[in-house]
Each structure stands twice: as structure tokens, then as C-alpha cells.
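Q: Sequence in, structure out?
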Amino acid sequence: MDVKSRVPGKMLEINVKVGDEVHEKDVLGVMEAMKMRQSIACPANGSVKEVRFAVGDRVNAGDVMFVIE
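A: Exactly. Output:
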């Protein structure tokens, strides 16, 4: 399952790494968009397969930020 950005912004925090077990509504990371901090919630239970951005990276709307399986 791909976790995509809904808006463009900048990654401020990454709270998970590849292999971590995650649960629905866990905060995977935080990004700044439109001068506000926005938490990125996990959509379902699973494990982190990919983390595609690092802290400080720019993210575009529609970019896949995390892959959960």
C-alpha cells in the first residue's frame, strides 16, 4: 500500500524505518505544508517496506512517501 502526499511540502520528521511494524493511525512522519505541520498517518496495519524520502527533502503532491505491506 502506497502512502502518498496530498499536498507539496518538506519532510520534517521520519518516525519509522524499513522493517518496522506499524498500526493503523500510527504517525509515519511529519511534513510542513502551507506553513503548517501535518502528520502522515498509517492507513492500515503492516510493516514498512520502503521509506522514499529523508528529513529535509521536498515532496510533491502525489509522491509516494512510504510503502506499507
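The beta strands are 2-4, 9-14, 21-22, 27-33, 36-41, 46-51, 58-59, 64-68.
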